[in-house]
């Protein structure tokens, strides 16, 4: 009886607050409880509050921490973490302004690319299936956010196909962000472009109570609100439901940086640095018979699978593999039990000098590279990554067919790596830190699977070209790993993430 009375009291309080908000905010708006009927969304413009109605978590702290870590550096991130207990006690607007000042003050505007290279991954992982369904059923999608436009616009437009993305604008002086925001003054014409706003066709959707005071909701016929309790029951948006697949993303941080997880990261970094140096020294100076079990004892987990025909490989064998990190050839070499030569593209000079195996830089000249690879294969086993660059997500980049013109047979190798704290790949100028960042993870994991040796001139008894065998092996490796094959190239990746062709 007591529980029923308690629930009735909260139901009454909820209806009372909605009535007060309705009368105080705009007399013509009807605030209703989520979810709306599907028929009501057909042919309508939906104004969705990103934090309140789209993301499962209403906390925006992790996204500002990502900006601080990836664009501002460790000092900004540490300052933001130290201020976390203070800003948690403040109002939403003051809390937002403090985080913007800490994260953006002094950043160069033209170099800020996190909104389309780093943040989309974390936004997509936090999108609720139920909230996304409401957005998908609408005819026209408008998303509003309390976060700066430079943080959310790339994600909303490119990955959720939102037509209008409205965020807070940042003040700029001399090409640098000042850390101050423009006044929140959004006109109704933003909703419908240059057309006159037809309020009868506009439905709002957000979270209670943070979304109800947004200016754009004053132009909505109805506003549906979802509570935090309901959002906790939302399902994660599956990768297969993404309007646009997330293939490339950048940044070092591999986890969602909540205050607790960020504190753990800063406490782990001193030990992680020493651990990474020790792991690297073991890799470089000890033979594989000792280094492999010792590294396993130090948390580096790996699993090797071989096929019967892969054991028939000679000491002058060509191995091709998908590319996950710069350590791919090292893991293949350790699995074979002997040193191999690896071809590279734009690996830093420091990484080449510290590598325990021989690395040879390709020139991107087809004839020269072909002759060089044949020469290296005559000297011993050779590892080639036909993708030419790494890919973190379960996708394979287009394979270059050059390897098929070098050897009559190859041994394909399927690789998969997993990290929990730091990514061991990047498109920045600090690529020499890639191996170190991978080794700083508490328990990095690798799976190495040797496939059967195949002829480079035949597929199923039929003669084939080098392009056909490259596409065939890409498909076979993708099928084994459960990865999807794409036609993207190394150039596409670097143009998307770094606005260059990938040369160092």
Automatic annotation (TrEMBL):
Record's Gene Ontology CC terms? Answer: membrane
Q: Which membrane topology describes this protein? A: Multi-pass membrane protein
Main location per UniProt? membrane
The answer to keyword Transmembrane helix applying to this record is yes
Q: Name one GO molecular function term.
A: glycerol-3-phosphate 2-O-acyltransferase activity
Tell me the ranges covered by the Phospholipid/glycerol acyltransferase domain, including all copies: 317-418
Which Pfam families does the protein's record reference?
A: Acyltransferase, HAD_RAM2_N
Tell me the keywords, alphabetical order. Membrane, Transferase, Transmembrane, Transmembrane helix
Question: Which InterPro entries does the entry mention?
Answer: HAD_RAM2/GPAT1-8, Plipid/glycerol_acylTrfase
Its annotated compartments are: Membrane
Where do transmembrane segments lie in this chain?
253-274, 280-300
Please indicate which superkingdom the organism of origin belongs to.
Eukaryota
BP term (GO), one? cutin biosynthetic process
What the record says about family reads: Belongs to the GPAT/DAPAT family.
Name by which UniProt lists this protein: Phospholipid/glycerol acyltransferase domain-containing protein
